[in-house]
């Protein structure tokens, strides 16, 4: 408990401090081109701006651990200057008193763009709910090119498997390494009692691996394969959550951010959809399932963004339809599904919540990673370390580190001895040969 | 073949009370005998298919009229069972089939039903009348089927129920002093609802159908088929048909019970379209100045009785308008007889009222 609070406080502090650096773009917009940071005044979409801001937080935290404390110290000293900056008094570089650290976000931005981002998304749901189609529609790619759908007879023998596919997407110079973890076989068997133990052990494995890397000596290239978000697909055919849904979500809500999604929403009329959403939310409350909650918009954000967040929050769980087929409707080409009675457009907000889901995923990709790091991972870590001493086969991290240190020291000593020996040898030879070797 | 069956049935006294037989379409009547009642006394000799030559009109075919009158008086009963996971629209479909609120849940969507922990069997009976013909319709619902996490053997309560109905009928039939008309609670038709995943059947579907296709007339339907586009629908159906074939599951109409060529061709046509992809609805909307049953969505109205949209009309015509009687007959002559033979063989003879019969509810 204490640990969690501590972490949360740290998180808050960092965010507040960084918010002060990242002067709200509105004040920058009012300036002309001579403003210090070129990219932030780009009158591009609001979405992109916010995304970039969020990305700064990520890079500041994850890489260069040494970087952050410097900023906080410096900020504490120059709080008054930041205040004045907020009031727009130092927007002109030539103004006396302008220090220039407002350029910081730019540097961070450049570094993080070079480094690229990673995101791991897990999709869980019964087969036939359109998970693969939705992923392909969301990221406009084809993650499952040669897919064989097994028949029922084969499904009887299968257990749940984990399949991870990685794809590198690049947009406007920003690289994203997206890993989608699929779970075929979930909920297929007649007896689904065990179908989520495989999934939970996978999630735990990724945490374990990250913990191990983080506690290791060389932390330069830690690969973050932890599951940042889990889309749980709910069938639109039922009257709410099934017992399997409830059990699964309760088992993983403390390990990963759960986003419930109503699949194949074109089965439902508008009224049925509203009813189902309400029903699902009621059941989630009833069973105490902690789904991922979008963070509230800060009070200093502009109205559009606040409104957008409000709409997103009100639409959970999202009722989506996925499709990558181009259909001709009303004279224009749209992605959708063609029925004899009409065309369901994937990107039409009146037909389904696909756009909302995509917006949420993209604007909150950063937040999802943060919550995974600050909440779920820290929980796992504290549990793990507490257990570490009691667990037989796996030694705790401290013991591991000590052992490694000792080994390294032994190696160092050996190497020093060897060097000493070589030096002695060279000296002997050097007396004979003269100088030519650097001693 | 069929004519002979009827001729023997029509001859009184009837040893075994059969389910009342409504009139069969005229093609059953043997071709040579003229269907009009006016006698042809001009000496035209007509050849009956039995081989004997009839020298004039006798009036044997009026038996059909007599049977029809009798049926209208006694009415008949039909028992249908619906099986499938919760939320597949079973109750709505039954209401749509019989155009009245006959199913167990006859309030509309706003019901707050909890999923029962085990499979329950709930029957509801209604008497509906049309054109002077009374029908006692019994609908058996199976809430809880396939909804648990562990669905092992969830078909057993259903199998047991079906066999219990056969047992009841058998006991009554074997009685020394038995009723004139044995109440028929046997399940004549079982509609199995397949979820429209678009991929294939689920293991649960296969297991259920394997266990029950031998003891009851099983008709699979694809529920809520407005999820599927026409291409997806036909692909899905093909896959389902292939899987049923591979697993050796015989759904109604079974190929082995086709009597003659005409039957076979009729049934083959049906078999090509099965499983029927249906949509149920009890709400009416205005489409092209007509009131139709349908579902209204933001992108169009799905019409239940439009053949381009779904195959509900085909299902309704199949079950009610053309094969209702056949369903009952196959249940009585084949499934029930199979059960009876097995029971009598097990018991080693006929016991009018035997308590052993109750305990012999073996896995049939």
Automatic annotation (TrEMBL), chain A:
Pfam families, sorted: Septin (PF00735)
Superkingdom of origin: Eukaryota
InterPro entries, per database record: G_SEPTIN_dom, P-loop_NTPase, Septin, Septin2
Subcellular location: Cell projection, Cilium membrane; Cleavage furrow; Cytoplasm, Cytoskeleton, Spindle; Midbody
GO biological process: cell division
GO terms for cellular component: ciliary membrane; cleavage furrow; cytoplasm; midbody; spindle
Domain Septin-type G: 115-387
Protein name: Septin-type G domain-containing protein
